[in-house]
Amino acid sequence: MTLVRSGDTLALTNLSDQALRVRAVEAASTYDVETLVQVTWAYMTAGSRKGARTSPKTLAAYRLAVRDFVPWAQEHGVQLLRPGRRDGGRYVAQLQTRPSQGRGRRGTLSASTVAQYVAGARALYRALSWAGATDAQPFQDAHVPPDPTPGIVKNPPYMREIDEVLQHCEPRLATLLLLCAHAGLRVSEALSVKTADIQGTTLTVHGKGGKIRRVPLGKRVRAAIAGLPPLRADGALFIWTYHQAKYRMSTAFRAAGQGHAWRGFHAARKHSGTRLYRATRDFTRVGLFLGHASVDTTRRYVALEENDVQSEVEDF
Predict the structure, then answer these.
(1) In the CATH scheme, what is the homologous superfamily, with its name and number, of domain 161-299?
(2) How confident is the model over 14-46, as pLDDT tens digits?
């Protein structure tokens, strides 16, 4: 399978309107998956709201979705440039009944996976419209049912696991876990930290979409960082890729007897959100700390205690 190179995407954005349209029409007519991925990436880079600041994670997710949708369309007789009005709904229905192929998983694809595939397919049609190939929008009326199980229930925050795992981490790995669990950083943000980003008790974080926020560091995080020499001339504290960091952290969880509890780095970020909310009872302050654009997002990062309002309603 051909890999999509950033140079290919840039070349598409530099084509004339007519040349881009011809390329997109040809790719859609022949179900050329990789060229359609390039067209989608070109649109996301040069035509979408976020433009060149679109995250690599989003681009990778949309690539996966296009690689799934286009072969399905070809197999089921869907003309990409002239889809039927019900074809979007057909694809959604097929996704909802498709068996999950994840390791150790049973049943059908999760609601979040279905939503991700459909988002990518919608992006493909926005890209084809941007390229002048078609105005069809087969997913405009396609309904993607939300996941009935809240994310905070499916992937709750680590709580006591943090301190237990820290005992089995070497200093640099422990610092990474503390940056996620105590400073509330995304793992990508934590892996990008450099010494110049730290000013006293504050860390300047370069977040999603190029957004910058300043995060206060607790004494435990400051002490962990202070014990780490930079690994590169630019002051980088980590040189791991995401997958290298994930492997090391999952190994530490197993060493702590918490291998069953490992749910990725995001549960550590939820740890910080949950603890800060319990201390402040203020979703707005927690959202600013975590770098969320919406308080509604923050609510999905906080595990509320049962009977949280018992004392308030006691004397109603």
Answers:
(1) Intergrase catalytic core (1.10.443.10)
(2) 899 999 999 999 999 999 999 999 999 999 999
